[in-house]
Specification:
This protein has one domain: Alpha-Beta Barrel (TIM Barrel), CATH 3.20.20.70. The chain is 40% helix and 13% strand. The chain is built from 12 helices and 10 strands. Helix 5 packs across helix 6, helix 6 runs parallel beside helix 7 and helix 7 packs parallel to helix 9.
Length: 310
């Protein structure tokens, strides 16, 4: 589909409603019993999930497989990013029982791989880094066969925070750039593109065996050359895994979708990323940072083994 046709299809006739999704972005709801069981487990252990808070389109598929991305440190964020559906406000106290509850949930779900993320907690002296570390250690103790991926905020102006997280020993350190530098002021206020890049580079310096990962959204108004330049920056930071997905506007209050990117454009971006040497690339309209994370972790391990052997 041409860019011109997509722009026409994306136009919002009343200037307010999010544009209608094209066929490749329409997802059927799952009524599998596992979806209800996963929801009940999260409620029983008083855990938040980014699947619900961010209105992820893949929730039904993932929860049917008993996979959920747990969001620690509460459900109130101290920042107000233009793309994110998580509530902004003044967070409450950190729950000291959360690491144990998280580990129990993962043990009950018998997950091979877990993704743990959080809201931004600029109100905390360490940005929540110590809580990430406590959660990681609890998972190692209660669910030792589960690999751990941490999708962290940027810990901006929090000295020693990254070191605390890496020292806890996750298998994957994930921090999303979200968009190209030109759009940061509008889409990701409060964050810094150079800082996020340096965070990823520093994580690999602290632990060269650690897999590093980052993701972006497209359809926010970025240009192709800007995305390719961002890929170069990530490779310069020695990032192993790149995810690219379509931005979807959660509500009228959020940044509008500039356009829906066609599947063949995602294929093109994936090819460009592979040429640049990423160990793994996931670029599809429905790709999200933790989508198919368990399968991707196995693929990451295999890719590193092949690269080491060659």
């Amino acid at each position: 589909m041409s860019d011109e046709l997509l722009q026409i299809q994306n136009a919002s006739p009343d200037g307010g409603r999010p544009p209608r999704k094209p066929p490749w972005l329409r997802v059927r709801l799952s009524h599998a019993p596992e979806v209800h069981e996963t929801r009940q487990l999260m409620r029983r252990l008083e855990l938040n999930t980014v699947c619900e808070e961010a209105a992820c389109p893949n929730l039904g598929e993932c929860w049917a497989r008993k996979h959920a991305t747990v969001m620690i440190l509460g459900s109130i964020c101290t920042r107000a990013c233009a793309f994110c559906n998580v509530t902004t406000g003044t967070p409450g106290a950190v729950d000291p029982d959360e690491p144990a509850n998280l580990a129990e949930a993962i043990r009950e779900l018998a997950l091979e791989h877990v993704v743990v993320t959080s809201v931004d907690r600029d109100d905390l002296p360490d940005g929540g880094a110590g809580h990430f570390a406590r959660c990681t250690r609890a998972l190692r103790e209660r669910a030792p066969r589960t690999s751990v991926e941490l999708l962290t905020p940027d810990f901006r102006r929090k000295s020693g925070a990254l070191e605390t997280v890496v020292e806890a020993g996750p298998d994957v350190f994930n921090h999303n750039l979200e968009t190209v530098p030109r759009l940061y002021r509008r889409i990701r206020p409060g964050a810094s593109y150079p800082h996020s890049l340096s965070l990823l580079a520093r994580a690999k310096e602290l632990d060269p065996a650690l897999f590093t990962k980052s993701g972006i959204m497209v359809g926010l108004g970025e240009e192709r050359d800007e995305v390719l330049s961002l890929m170069d920056d990530l490779r310069e930071a020695d990032v192993d895994f790149l995810t690219v997905g379509q931005y979807l506007q959660p509500t009228r209050r959020h940044a509008e979708v500039a356009r829906f990117v066609a599947p063949d454009e995602f294929d093109d971006l994936a090819a460009e990323a592979r040429q640049r040497g990423f160990l793994l690339v996931s670029a599809t309209p429905l790709t999200r940072s933790s989508y198919h994370a368990a399968d991707d972790f196995r693929r990451l391990q295999a890719a590193r083994e092949r690269a080491t052997a060659s």
